[in-house]
Amino acid sequence: MLTKREKEVFDLLIDNYSTAEIAEKMHISDKTVRNHISNVMLKLGVKGRAQAVVELIKLDELKL
């Protein structure tokens, strides 16, 4: 379901990295990080990052 980059972004999100820190770590812009997050939220039909994380865990796409 997730692209490689989307998974990387969400793995870092659940490790408590901020958008800016994720951007720096992945060598991409803040906007690109936000786009990846938005794309995943759209795919899942959820309204927030936390909801997206919960759904991804339920779908076995992410591990805590």
TrEMBL record:
InterPro entries: Sig_transdc_resp-reg_C-effctor, Tscrpt_reg_LuxR_C, WH-like_DNA-bd_sf. Pfam families: GerE. Residues 1-60 form the HTH luxR-type domain. It comes from the Bacteria. Gene3D superfamilies: Winged helix-like DNA-binding domain superfamily/Winged helix DNA-binding domain. The keyword DNA-binding applies. CDD domains: LuxR_C_like. GO terms for biological process: regulation of DNA-templated transcription. Keywords: DNA-binding, Transcription, Transcription regulation. The keyword Transcription regulation applies. One of its GO terms (molecular function) is DNA binding. This is Helix-turn-helix transcriptional regulator. It comes from [Eubacterium] hominis. The lineage of its organism: Bacteria, Bacillati, Bacillota, Erysipelotrichia, Erysipelotrichales.
